[in-house]
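Shipment paperwork, digital attachment
Item: protein structure file
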Amino acid sequence: MNSLFSLRANTTEIGVLDPALYKADCHVEDYLWPEGHVGRVWFTLKYESETERLQIHIIKVKHLPSRTPALANACDPYIRIQLMPDERRVLQTKQKKKTCNPFFDETFVYQIPPGKLESLTLKLSVLDSGRVGRNKPLIGHIILPLSELEGVAPDEEPQLYKMDIEKDIQEPTSDLGEVQVSLLYNENLHRLTVTVIEARGLKLDPTSRREMVARVTQERACRGVRARRTAAVEVSEEGSALISECFHFRLRSDELHTTSVTVQALQPHSVYAKDRLLGKFVLGSYMFARGRALQHWNSAIGNPMESVKQWHPLTN
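Attachment content:
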């Protein structure tokens, strides 16, 4: 009798919708595209220790750039798979036609001895066959060291990755100046401390006061959460300023990937005029930042209770 009751309790009545059947397998952070974004790749990795097989399953790509701005899906993408440093064996997905959001669902296998896996790096190159000219088909790469990939049994689930495509560009330089900040993350108190230390090379409006302020804004999922502002400090003739002011922001571990911090350098005008933007930069996860800013964020989050300082170039 008890078993019959349990069976009935776990069933759904006829004519009643079961919400569990309609859950979407996606998260809001999966569809947040930072400035200059050229695509995100979903793929899984699985290394079977018993068979010495590395399985790479390419699932899909989202938000690839259209080669013709006037057309929404002017892209014919495919992906090349290589294991560096030996790049001679190249595997490749099928080419998809006229889509910036291709779905591949293809699996590739490499035979790798266990002792060699940690010395290899996975390289995924995303290309558009519709582009012409030498090296023009390349959209960008994904580089992933395999040193931390652990071997599993054949019946275990693979590990899912969602990684942004990186363009082959150099770190931009700035003629607007630089600002040095430090980040300190306290995972026990769920607190991020941002300290604006100093600035150099600032380009001020000569008709206004030789002062600057820094505005620090915490954003979550591209929405402002909290903004703080330093006191005005004097800027030297060389464009340097000493600020040394810190702010605390509440930040839980489950919010790290959807949170960013924007730092703006401003030249204050009179009470009747709007402050002049000297430049800004964004710190955050791979969804919001690149290059030096992304490395700074990852270094601070990966080393809790350690203050990490970095100079950042200002941009418009």
